[in-house]
Design goal:
The protein is of the alpha+beta class. 20% of the residues lie in helices and 18% in strands. It contains three helices and eight strands; from the N terminus they run E-E-H-E-H-E-E-E-H-E-E. The N terminus is likely disordered.
Length: 225
């Protein structure tokens, strides 16, 4: 599997590109392509400090989750990977997509001896006022961008990254059409821990951003500074 290119240059570095526009019609339409920008998305780059803060959000999520579920406490030691996924990861890598929200995945190594770890829905955190602004479609309880956190169980392998790639490959095989059946495996994955900023998954045909008008529901969770 392609490990992806090196992390993008930072804004202000030689050769850094800062573009957040995309075509609004396909070449097959016979019309000239026009570059448009979705004003609900942030074009600001995601930097190392942002990845570190996303890691602190993941820590807060784990604290809260295991406080609510003490019978699952043994799973805490099975955390292998914390990563930025979906559109935020694509924006980190290419800086063209724009940020609607930020998606964190927390990956646990499978252990058949432990109680089943299962949670279908993400939890939502408020990043707070920042360079990323806020999505106007989100509930008024948000003062900044929404951060979604999902928990997943991946195969237990000596190299956790190989376990993650195996899991993502299986998801793509089950949902090969990124337009009809969107899945996080259709978009890049960027490590938060370990090796912050390492691109470990970059599929060849990342779908374009979708037009959205449905924002995030209310939240009381505030991202740690």
């Amino acid at each position: 599997m392609n490990r992806g290119p090196a992390p993008p240059k930072r804004a202000g570095e030689a050769g850094a590109r800062f573009s957040c526009y995309w075509p609004n019609c396909s070449p097959s339409s016979g019309r000239d392509l026009k570059l448009t920008r979705d004003p609900t998305r942030s074009c600001e780059p995601i930097d190392q400090a942002d990845l570190e803060r996303l890691g602190r959000i993941a820590d807060a999520e784990l604290d809260e989750f295991f406080a609510r579920n003490p019978r699952l406490a043994a799973w805490r030691g099975r955390v292998r990977i914390i990563a930025l996924a979906q559109g935020g990861a694509d924006h980190y890598l290419r800086r063209r997509r724009g940020i609607w929200d930020l998606d964190i995945i927390i990956c646990f190594a499978y252990d058949p001896t432990l109680p089943r770890l299962f949670r279908r829905n993400p939890t939502h955190w408020d990043w707070g006022p920042s360079k990323f602004g806020r999505c106007p479609y989100d509930d008024p309880s948000y003062t900044g961008r929404a951060v979604d956190v999902m928990l997943w169980v991946i195969p237990d392998r000596p190299d956790p990254i190989e376990g993650l790639r195996e899991w993502l490959s299986e998801r793509v095989a089950k949902k090969p059409n990124a337009i009809r059946t969107p899945d996080l495996a259709h978009e890049p994955v960027v490590l938060i821990r370990p090796e912050p900023g390492r691109v470990v998954w970059d599929p060849p045909s990342v779908p374009p951003p979708r037009n959205k008008t449905a924002g995030h529901p209310a939240t009381v969770r505030r991202a740690p500074a």
